[in-house]
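Thread amino acids onto this structure.
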């Protein structure tokens, strides 16, 4: 016992990973983490603040994301990496430590576009799109949210009707990541037979995408409005393997998993920035890290990050075992995004006025997290989803 106590006393704590959570990952996941972390440090961080400032997406990084096998990484076959859920999680965390826009691009491409094609598409659709998307040669977007139907997709107004062997689509989709740069959109529309998914290609007559400007959040990401005015698509544009809201909701559950991990990347980036700054900033003759109030903020941040990272690691293990329930994903998304936003706000106070400039990453992450809190299900919606699971009472009814 004495030997163990002496060993514990000599253990060095890493203030960036106090509980050595990085060590929980297997060898493959650690390789993914180090590869993506290096990519973010060397290629993304040098340019991301300029893109955020200009309101542009760093599309020049897409080939690098594809080379690392991150696009559709959790899918098998068709040029996809077939990685574990844990690997997808650690990649999401590292990408969002760079910027939410990077993780959003990968989440949309892999979980919201490639996943439904892989799960519900025909063999011809899979062969046509998945290898191209995994290689980054084709980009996709996911059309579900509408101007008047965000948290309630059952009230969507986009309609698709049969016209001979073809389908005619009319409607509008809003807040669509990758919209104007996408080669194909997975569009969900109401039909006489329930909600169906359609693959609508760029250049289809009557289909247009207009970017949303003057955003204060997710500025290094493309956000668009999609318009469908009597867009004619052939019968083979329909995803044949699913009907009803189960299709889009299953996609959202996949994406929310990555969001829950990614939020911890944003939180970690804010905490590490505040920690480093507190050691360098001198006030009243000593580093502000030496003051009790600053230490309390840093301790609270570090503690919350440990909680959040352990939560998603457990979720990843359950997902790899086939035991992850959508309610578990809702809980992780709700908890970790709120935690990350609170950490970002606290970190900003440590940096003082410097915290609101793009010289440091904190305000950028803080602004991005306001969007992350809302998309893939608002905090309020996830609260009611979890509440229903706990009580058996449906507050949506």
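Threaded sequence (397 positions):
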């Amino acid at each position: 016992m004495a030997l163990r106590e002496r060993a514990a006393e000599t253990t060095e704590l890493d203030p960036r990973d106090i509980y050595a959570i990085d060590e929980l990952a297997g060898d493959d996941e650690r390789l993914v983490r180090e590869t993506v972390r290096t990519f973010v440090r060397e290629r993304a961080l040098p340019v991301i603040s300029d893109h955020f400032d200009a309101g542009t997406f760093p599309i020049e990084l897409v080939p690098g994301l594809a080379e690392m096998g991150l696009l559709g990484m959790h899918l098998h076959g068709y040029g996809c990496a077939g990685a574990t859920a844990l690997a997808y999680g650690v990649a999401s965390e590292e990408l969002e430590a760079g910027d939410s826009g990077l993780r959003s691009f990968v989440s949309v491409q892999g979980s919201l576009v490639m996943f439904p094609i892989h799960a519900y598409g025909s063999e011809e659709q899979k062969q046509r799109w998945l290898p191209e998307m995994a290689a980054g040669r084709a980009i996709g977007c996911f059309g579900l949210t509408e101007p008047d139907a965000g948290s309630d997709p059952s009230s969507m107004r986009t309609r698709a009707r049969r016209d001979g062997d073809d389908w005619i689509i009319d409607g509008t989709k809003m807040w669509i990541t990758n919209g104007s740069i996408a080669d194909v959109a997975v569009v969900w529309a109401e039909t006489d037979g329930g909600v169906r998914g359609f693959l609508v290609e760029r250049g289809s007559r009557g289909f247009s995408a207009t970017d949303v400007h003057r955003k204060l959040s997710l500025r290094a990401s493309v956000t668009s409005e999609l318009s469908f005015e009597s867009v004619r698509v052939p019968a083979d544009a329909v995803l044949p393997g699913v009907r009803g809201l189960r299709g889009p909701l299953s996609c959202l559950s996949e994406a929310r998993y990555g969001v829950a991990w990614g939020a911890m990347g944003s939180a970690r980036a804010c905490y590490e920035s505040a920690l480093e700054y507190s050691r360098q900033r001198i006030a009243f003759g000593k580093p502000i890290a030496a003051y009790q109030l600053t230490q309390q903020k840093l301790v609270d941040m570090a503690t919350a990050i440990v909680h959040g990272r352990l939560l998603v690691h457990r979720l990843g293990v359950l997902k790899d075992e086939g035991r992850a329930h959508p309610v578990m994903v809702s809980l992780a998304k709700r908890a970790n995004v709120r935690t990350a936003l609170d950490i970002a706000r606290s970190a900003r106070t440590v940096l003082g006025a410097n915290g609101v400039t793009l010289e440091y990453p904190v305000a950028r992450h803080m602004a991005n997290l306001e969007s992350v809190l809302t998309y893939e299900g608002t905090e309020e919606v996830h609260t009611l989803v979890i509440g229903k699971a706990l009580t058996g009472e449906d507050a949506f009814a």
